[in-house]
């Protein structure tokens, strides 16, 4: 199982029956592939839809039925189309209960950075709907690899990049660990099977304590 | 004389001239007014300020190619890299983007322009997008306003000289019906333009579109132009999705 699949599988377990969920670009989108069969959630897409379903077959793909990445989707019974301003208003006003978002960095105060890094002295690539989600969605799950390609921790004491949202992340899911973000700091809830608490300390810049119900991820 | 808004593409698009401030409907490439963009690609107007939610999609598709041709001088949007052509132009310093807007902020700025308002108060990004150095090209710091102890950005309304929207069907009065997620904020874009062109898959007689299904009322539209048929549009996007690996190539029957 590669890192992306571990994260997506574990994020799927965080979703709650009946809630409205928005999945961000990248790893978060994969979460939909691993939902427990018994769980039904309403997926929101910021271009203006509640209740979308799986990808259609090629010949059934409709050019006017797409998600926020311009990928073909299907609409489930009970789906709703709305205009863009309404869709983004729903995000700001808290009608989307949970959002899984990718991240460049997350820190122990629940700050998330995922829209900008420096390229040739310019901030790049852009915000899209991520900032509206961080502002208004009560439960943000940050889904990211634990370390970058150079081995630096992406779960930090303090983010260094421009933020997407302040104090918004409630759960951090990486390929190595699951943390809850609490008012008193990060709480290590799970590790990838076989990893110890010390293993996690060695690859994590952020401070954390260990939850009383600490255990291995059930993948 | 009866109102008749159906126009030839050339006549409608003649309103777009070098330097025009242009709004366009789309969402990461979905719902692009294909014929109007092809007209721009052919006529190479250039110097345009483009107001759009994103700069299109990867794969050398329609809007992205406007950036490749260098026709867009400034982009007012939420993102610069949904198409590789726009990303490259920005990183080369050939595309001005003074600031990035959160999507909901961008949508409300257009809506304010549409609805005759001066602007909107937006709490999203306060304390983040006003940090020093984030947007060095802004002439002034982003204005804020305190209301009942909470800080908001004062976001000015956006309007354009020409708006181009994409609908499903329209009648000669300019009433437009949208399909599914193609709805986007095309109605707001239409209202926020001084001159608005609606490109549609199908032109139908007055009375065909049920009044409550009119997504953009005719008075907001100046010109209706015939676009690709819905079947041609589906084929164009299926080809794109196969090219980008988002769909498997169709098996011959």
> What is the average per-residue confidence, as pLDDT of chain A, rounded to a whole number?
97
| Count of individual helical segments of chain B | 7
Average pLDDT across residues of chain B?
97
Q: Name the helix and strand elements of chain B from N-terminus to C-terminus, one letter apiece.
A: HEHEHEHHEEEEEHEEH
Structural class of chain B: alpha/beta
Q: What is the helix fraction of residues of chain B, given as a range? A: 10-25%
Number of helices of chain A: 5
Characterization of the model:
The complex is a heterodimer of chains A (219) and B (253). Chain A is of the alpha/beta class and 219 residues long. Chain A contains 5 helices and 15 strands. Chain A has one domain: Glutaconate Coenzyme A-transferase (3-Layer(aba) Sandwich). Chain A is globular, with a radius of gyration of 17 Å. The model of chain A has no long low-confidence stretch (mean pLDDT 97). Chain B has 253 residues and is an alpha/beta fold. Helix content of chain B is 24%, strand content 22%. Chain B is built from 7 helices and 10 strands. Chain B has helices at residues 9-13, 34-43, 63-68, 84-91, 103-114, 186-191, 230-243, and strands at residues 21-24, 48-51, 72-76, 119-122, 144-147, 150-156, 160-170, 176-177, 193-203, 223-226. In chain B, strand 7 and strand 8 form a beta hairpin. Chain B starts with 8 loop residues before the first helix and ends in a 10-residue tail after the last helix. The mean pLDDT of chain B is 97.
Descriptive labels:
heterodimer, A: 219 residues, alpha/beta, Glutaconate Coenzyme A-transferase, 10-stranded mixed β-sheet, globular, B: 253 residues, 2 domains, 7-stranded mixed β-sheet, 3-stranded antiparallel β-sheet, 10 strands
In short:
The complex is a heterodimer of chains A (219) and B (253). Chain A is an alpha/beta fold and 219 residues long. Chain A is built from 5 helices and 15 strands.
């Amino acid at each position: 199982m590669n890192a992306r699949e571990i994260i997506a599988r574990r994020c799927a377990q965080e979703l709650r029956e009946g809630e409205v969920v928005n999945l961000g670009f990248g790893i978060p989108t994969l979460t939909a592939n691993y939902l427990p069969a018994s769980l039904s959630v309403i997926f929101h897409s910021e271009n203006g839809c509640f209740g979308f379903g799986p990808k259609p077959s090629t010949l059934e793909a409709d050019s006017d039925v797409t998600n926020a990445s311009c990928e073909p989707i299907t609409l489930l019974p009970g789906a709703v189309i709305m205009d863009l301003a309404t869709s983004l208003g729903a995000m700001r006003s808290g009608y989307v209960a949970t959002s899984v978002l990718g991240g460049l960095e997350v820190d122990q105060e629940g700050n998330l950075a995922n829209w900008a890094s420096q390229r040739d002295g310019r901030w790049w690539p852009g915000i899209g709907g991520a900032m509206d989600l961080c502002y208004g969605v009560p439960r943000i799950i940050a889904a990211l690899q634990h370390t970058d390609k150079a081995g630096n921790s992406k779960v930090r004491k303090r983010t260094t990049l421009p933020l997407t949202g302040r104090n918004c992340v409630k759960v951090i899911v990486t390929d190595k660990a699951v943390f809850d973000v609490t008012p008193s700091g990060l709480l290590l809830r799970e590790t990838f099977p076989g990893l110890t608490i010390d293993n996690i300390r060695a690859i994590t810049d952020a401070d954390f304590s260990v939850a009383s119900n600490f255990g291995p991820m059930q993948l | 004389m009866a109102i008749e808004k159906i126009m030839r593409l050339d006549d409608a698009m003649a309103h777009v001239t070098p330097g025009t401030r242009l709004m366009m409907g789309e969402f990461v490439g979905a719902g692009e007014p294909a014929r109007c963009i092809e007209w721009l690609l052919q006529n190479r107007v250039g110097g345009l300020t483009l107001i759009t939610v994103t700069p299109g999609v990867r794969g050398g598709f329609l809007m992205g190619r406007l950036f490749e041709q260098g026709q867009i001088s400034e982009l007012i949007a939420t993102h610069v890299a949904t198409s590789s052509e726009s990303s490259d132009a920005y990183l080369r310093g050939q595309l001005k983007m003074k600031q990035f807007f959160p999507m909901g902020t961008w949508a409300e700025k257009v809506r304010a322009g549409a609805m005759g308002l001066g602007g909107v108060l937006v709490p999203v990004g306060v304390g983040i997008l006003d940090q020093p150095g984030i947007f060095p090209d802004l002439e002034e710091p982003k204005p804020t306003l305190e209301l009942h102890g909470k800080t908001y950005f004062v976001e000015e309304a956006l309007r354009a000289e020409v708006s181009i929207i994409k609908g499903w069907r329209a009648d000669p009065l300019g009433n437009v019906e949208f399909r599914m997620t193609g709805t986007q904020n095309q109605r707001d874009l239409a209202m926020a333009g001084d001159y608005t062109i609606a490109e549609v898959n199908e032109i139908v007689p007055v009375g065909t579109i049920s009044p409550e299904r009119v997504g953009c009322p005719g008075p907001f539209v100046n010109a209706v132009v015939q676009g690709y048929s819905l079947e041609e549009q589906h084929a164009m996007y299926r080809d794109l999705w196969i090219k980008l690996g988002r769909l498997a190539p169709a098996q011959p029957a």
